[in-house]
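S1.2 Input.
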Amino acid sequence: MSGAPGSPCRATAGPLPRHDGATTIAYECRGGIDNGALDALHAEGFGPRPTGTDWRARLHRHSLGWVCARESGESGESGEDGRLVGFVNVAWDGGPHAFLVDTVVARRHRGRGTGAALVSVAAERARAAGCEWLHVDFEDGLAPFYFGACGFRPTRAGLIAL
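S1.3 Output.
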């Protein structure tokens, strides 16, 4: 996921399949972005409605990388193959610090490990890119997810609303 050409995640890495009942979830680093699909997923997670954001341009301009979770049926021949069901953006400071932003999972996939897998892939790729720290901030209700399922530890931090 580093900014240097030829780094581990500058090109799309192969999908990392994980099975969830009748579907397979593939996790893809720097996967292709359909602005409408990501906008709809983002609205589902953060509401209230899609904003028309040009996600593709934003990610290419400001991100170390991102991870997409896509579902397919057991046969791999479902009409919904490749449907975006999860996403996390990895921003960075150009050095040792990476930051998770916009972690979101479709409602029907929550509580099944999809989000934890997204974060795990993001952490693996940030580490491979030479980052030493992965930061995240979140609302109190998400503490069990980030501290439990994802392995983050509590730290003190500050915030100014702008």
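S1.4 Remarks. The two ends are 29 Å apart (CA to CA).
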